Amino acid sequence: MASQFSRTELEQAQHAIASMLHKLSKSQQTMEAKGSIKPGSSQQTLMGRRVAALKVADALIQEALEGLPMAVFSTGETGRIFDRR
Q1: Global pTM?
Q2: Around Cβ 61, how many Cβ atoms within 10 Å?
Q3: Strand ranges for the chain from DSSP E
Q4: Domain ranges of the chain
């Protein structure tokens, strides 16, 4: 199945997901260290589900990227991409 998103769009989305995962991890560590999140609480469950959802999205994006051909970039005077193979 052909992707409806360009390689650039997928790579940018993957970067955003990695950033969100990093921030969630830091937030979780801080909350656990302060004792403001209790094991089994709805906050912990929600955070865990968000992390799982982001990991699924990341895996699907990676799968889509692996199915796309690598772009061959040629630039003209404007510096814009005009050839993609």
Answers
A1: 0.71
A2: 20
A3: none
A4: 7-66
Q: What is the largest CA-CA distance in the chain?
A: 58
- For residue 2, the model assigns a pLDDT of 54
* Contact call for residues 45 and 28 (beta carbons, < 8 A): no
pLDDT in tens, 23-69: 999 998 898 888 888 888 898 899 989 999 999 999 999 999 998 77
DSSP letter assigned to residue 70? P
Q: Is the pLDDT of residue 1 over 70?
A: no
Place of tokens 């699907």: 60
Q: How far apart are CA 46 and CA 40, in angstroms?
A: 10
Q: What is the DSSP letter of 25?
A: H
Written as six digits, the tokens of 58 are: 């990341």
